[in-house]
Design brief:
The chain is of the alpha/beta class. The chain has helices spanning 16-36, 58-68, 88-101, 116-122, 126-144, 181-190, 202-218, 245-268, 281-298, 320-332, 349-368; strands spanning 2-7, 40-43, 73-80, 106-111, 149-152, 156-160, 174-178, 193-196, 233-238, 240-241, 317-318, 337-341. It has an 8-stranded parallel β-barrel with strand order 1-2-3-4-7-8-9-12, surrounded by 6 helices. A two-stranded antiparallel sheet has the order 5-6. One of its GO terms (cellular component) is cytosol.
Length: 371
Amino acid sequence: MRFSLFFVGQLSDPTPEREQQMLRDAVEQAVLAEQVGFDRIWAVEHHGLKWYSHMSASEIFLTWVAARTERIRIGHGVVTMPFAYQHPVRVAERAAMLDVLSGGRLDIGAGNGASEQEMALYGVDRERARSQVREALDIITGIWESDRFEWHGSIDIGPGSVPPMPAQRPHPPLFLACSREETLRTAARLGIGALVLGFGGPEMTRLRRAAYDASRAERASQDLLSSTVNDLFAVVCPTVVLDDAEEARTIGLRGQQFFVESSRHWYGGGRPPEQDPAVDGQAALDRTRREVLKELDAHQVPFRPEYVAAYNTDHPYGTAGMAVERVRELAGAGVDEVICLVQMGTVPHDVCLETIRQWGEKVIPRFRSER
């Protein structure tokens, strides 16, 4: 089992000063993660999503963390790859440079950046976004697997060389953001790792792993994106761990509620997130869940568990012992890497540090010793 930390760059009650402090705090948390035994950090890339994510230039954040650490892997979770966000050659150049300077510690995931706000900010064509992500992956791996590259698809590139080449050969491990069964199947078919996002818990994880494995079993050699296959299945695990279980649950549920509300605001047109740290997270999540179910019923949409997965509150918000049990459940569901989501908008920095420390001292060692 591997363990990583997920940085979304969330911020309640944003001001320039608080934003700057949050980013510095995130670097401190990443450095501590290396010191206590985490294997990897992941940083998102989002644009224009006030409250939900102020991590708009994750390549800079990851470079800064790489310079402050020696061992921990650094992951783009993910790069937004539709062409209006950034040209695929530029993605390859930046990623290779960071891989070289970090000593071959980079992992790179791909995604759409699918909110209306982000797409409007960059002029992304929603209808073409998914196909452009797929084409970008072909271009990037092609650059890294050849000395002289040329491409003629929906865009024309080259011919020419694209230095530098990454330190990891033929290239850093590749991942795909997977929030739906369709993207899980795509990742499995291409032979790239799955970053399973969300709050679903072990039961939903088991179903998603089954879908991933079914597609993996059916894939042919010509389906593979690269000569190097990465079948790692990584799942987000929201968590706050303190000695006081009740306090941890109160803080964790409030953080989850902020995460869900700010996400719903940008992706579903909901109200701006409630920013009062004293809000009862459990009650607020229950209330919003009821609203979602009512909307589904009004539109006669057949119920599917993933529609309300964000409102699942069965997470390790409590003691380290609870976190150990959750890791065992996730391992039983087929998870290869647990991605700890700690930095949710209203979770204080000192609580983030303590949670990271407790995972490093009391949770991760239990699974190292079982190898």
